[in-house]
Amino acid sequence: MASAEEARFKIALCQLAVTSDKEKNIAHARQAIEDAAGKGARLILLPEIWNSPYSNDSFPVYAEDIDAGGDASPSTAMLSELSRTLKVTIVGGSIPERSGDRLYNTCCVFDTDGKLIAKHRKIHLFDIDIPGKMTFKESKTLTAGETPTIIDTDVGRIGIGICYDIQFQELAAIYASRGAHLLCYPGAFNMTTGPLHWELMQRARFIELANLIVSIILLMHFFLKFRAADFQLYVATCSPARDTGSSYVAWGHSTLVGPFGEVLATTEHEEAIVISEIDYSLIEQRRTYLPFERQRRGDLYQVVDVQRVGSV
Ligand SMILES: O=C(O)CCC(=O)C(=O)O
């Protein structure tokens, strides 16, 4: 960060209600972004799949050609316009993207000039089967992205993941090793894994990898208990609001976690704009208090970084 002033800013997590009417969803997101900017947010995060219902039947129908832009992508055109006119950075949740004959679950990041500066295609598709509770197979319609996405913005270095990406600690470890201040995860956890994993993953995203590998090597699984804030950065999640009438019922609970693993701001499942302050100077402070990075035993374990970074 260039200055202490830039190290402090407000973030908004826009937990939006999503309908089957795309135009309405776009207008609704526009209003939420304007409200968030009006409340002083400089970074605005939207939910996973905010312009379409979350279903394999809907993805092909609502998908937009982001690279073509303009009329081919009214959702990202709106995000670009607002980031430019309101001078805010937008991590635009995700929308179904059409690229050739493939569909992706894609997050677009816009800088304060309205420029698309990153496009993250969900790397880990949500294919799970918990009998009687939750079955979903994104891979029925979607293709997985191939690259981690970390980007320098006016509000720090941000690593991006989409929902199920948060379950894979290696991605967070790579972002941390590349100097991320903040990880943003637009997500739509459900009523089964939401209560179990949503907050846990967000708070644990910092420490898990090192501890897991140490645990395996040393066969001391109790290390896993100490999940809290090892990578010592900020993590923001943003979900759609819950709609009990939809085929996929989202958990909600958009949350900001700080570099001690502490919940700084959260909400329940209704529509909400959660505003909270981020102060990157606390990252350094926490790392001084708990110098994990210096203490890490690279002679015993390592994160292998294949260095494929996503771009637009
Ligand atoms: O990881 C989970 O349990 C939920 C993931 C999810 O809902 C998604 O990727 O859309």
Automatic annotation (TrEMBL):
Sorted alphabetically, which Gene3D superfamilies does this protein's record hold?
A: Carbon-nitrogen hydrolase
The UniProt entry, under Pfam families, shows: CN_hydrolase
Coiled-coil segments on the chain, per record: none
Recorded GO terms, molecular function? omega-amidase activity
Q: Which GO terms describe its cellular component?
A: mitochondrion
Query: Which positions carry the signal peptide feature in this UniProt record?
Result: none
InterPro entries the UniProt entry points to = C-N_Hydrolase, C-N_Hydrolase_sf, Nit1/2_C-N_Hydrolase
Q: Name one GO biological process term.
A: asparagine metabolic process
**Family annotation (CDD domains):** nit
In terms of superkingdom, the source organism counts as: Eukaryota
Which of UniProt's keywords are assigned here? Hydrolase
**Residues of the CN hydrolase domain:** 9-280
Q: Which PROSITE patterns match?
A: CN_HYDROLASE
Return the protein name: CN hydrolase domain-containing protein
> Which organism does this record belong to?
Salvia splendens (Scarlet sage)
